Amino acid sequence: MSILLIEAFYGGSHKQLVDLLQEDIEDCVLFTLPAKKWHWRARTAALYFMQTIPASANYRILFASSVLNLTELIALRPDFGKLKKVFYFHENQLIYPVQKCQERDFQYGYNQILSCLVADIVVFNSAYNMESFLTSIGKFMKLMPDHRPKCLEESIRPKCQVLYFPVKFPDVRRFMPEHKLALLEHTPGAKGNGNPYPFMSLPFQEKDDKTVGLTKNNNSDMRSVHCKGQTEGCTSLQDRPHNLITTPREVNKTTSSKSTSHCQREDGPCEACNLCRTPEGLEDQKKPLHIVWPHRWIEAVYCGCYPLCPKALVYPEIFPAEYLYSTPEQLFKRLLKFCKRPDIIRKHLYKGKMAQFSWAALRGKFRSLLTTEPKEDL
pTM of this prediction? Predict the structure, then answer.
């Protein structure tokens, strides 16, 4: 095994990433700790891995998330020092929210700064994550009473790059309304790598029951995609009728033949719109709006949710301006409008791009990241 994957917090998105790397990239070996007691993992994981990971002359790459104190591990295992060390940030401890009654623990952010100095490549899951970390280093180090180090941002920045978190998009065609199916055809994750349908499974929602996604923070831990389980029960993939659309060719044929019958107006139904004139269409407009906090946006929007996010943190980097709000008053007005007219959400076609977040699009970049440089002497 030439690629050493280390995850000190093996759960949620951290687990999803290293599992994906191990599955799709050759010559990987994975060492982990359970996703419990995060603070203790950040403090002590290096010592555990020092004793657990066997020595091997085959290692060429070390990939670890920012929970691990990489500096300690390299000091404890000098044989790892010669490896190409890739340090991946899911979040950073210089700006990560803390409880109001609690002061930020200096040590966690300090450990991440030291680890960046030791790493060969520092990777962030968004430009916001990268810039918020780098530009906060100077202010953060001023917490030291004296003898403060200088020019740390300048030393670390040349090593940094952005590589979005990769998503294997689920197969949602069986419960998507037909007028939204065409959007999936433009996302590489819907086509896969060799296998045309390499999807993860997700909870399912009723075919025409669209939702609005909302959030309070930038938590990346996936919970669920909303379904009508509270009143009518979730419908699994196996329970769906087998005559629903199942192939890209059928998707294109159906959407092209019916695209003219769907109303795209947000001010009300048009006279020639079959979706609005049929009894089914009128009944659909009366269905209540479902509002959820999905936590995993890159998946929720793909499943047909309408994103409604604060114009802050990473959201402007991901979503077009029309899906963002600046104040609670703006959020209230938009929610009020959507609750009165849920058909606006159901008819809406998402105007952003999802392809850049798919594993199909990012796989090559991760593979390049986890290869040694030409003529590198290890």
Answer: 0.75
